[in-house]
Amino acid sequence: MITPLADQIITIAHHFGDPQYARAGGGNASYKADGVLHIKPSGRSLATLAVSDLVPLRMDVLMQALRSSDPVDADPVQVAAAKARVGTR
């Protein structure tokens, strides 16, 4: 969904994705709205970032997973993000 905040983050990402500011289009971009953190995934260029590229993560689920002491068999941040992804369980 395109919101004014999402539109603004895309505009800023495109500006700072310029080679004058970023190497190989890399960098971070995110915004929070209504308890959801929308983040730019690794491997996406700031210069060509689209709203549909942003990954929505429920902040409550993400924080709970990151604070958990339960053992995981993979990267704990990736596991937490997978749990928090909007539209998944």
Q: Describe it for me?
A:
- It is a single chain.
- Helix content is 35%, strand content 13%.
- Strand 1 and strand 2 (36-39) form a beta hairpin.
- The protein has a single domain (4-84), classed as Class II aldolase/adducin N-terminal domain (L-fuculose-1-phosphate Aldolase, 3-Layer(aba) Sandwich).
- The chain contains three helices and three strands; from the N terminus they run H-E-E-E-H-H.
- With 89 residues, the protein is α+β, with helices and mostly antiparallel strands.
Output the keywords.
89 residues, 35% helix, L-fuculose-1-phosphate Aldolase, alpha+beta, 13% strand
Short description:
The chain is of the alpha+beta class and about 90 residues long. It contains 3 helices and 3 strands; from the N terminus they run H-E-E-E-H-H.
- Tell me the overall shape: globular
CATH homologous group name: Class II aldolase/adducin N-terminal domain
Helix content: 25-40%
Query: What order do the strands of the largest sheet run in, or round the barrel if closed?
Result: 1-2-3
Count of runs of 4 or more consecutive helical residues:
3
Which ranges are low-confidence, i.e. pLDDT below 50, for 5 or more consecutive residues?
Answer: none
CATH topology: L-fuculose-1-phosphate Aldolase
How would a textbook summarize the main sheet?
3 strands, antiparallel
The count of DSSP E runs of length 2 or more, i.e. the number of strands, is: 3
Query: Secondary-structure element sequence?
Result: HEEEHH
Whole-number total of structural domains:
1
What's the CATH first level? Alpha Beta
Broad structural category: alpha+beta
Please name the CATH architecture. Answer: 3-Layer(aba) Sandwich
Based on CA atoms alone, the radius of gyration comes out at 14 Å
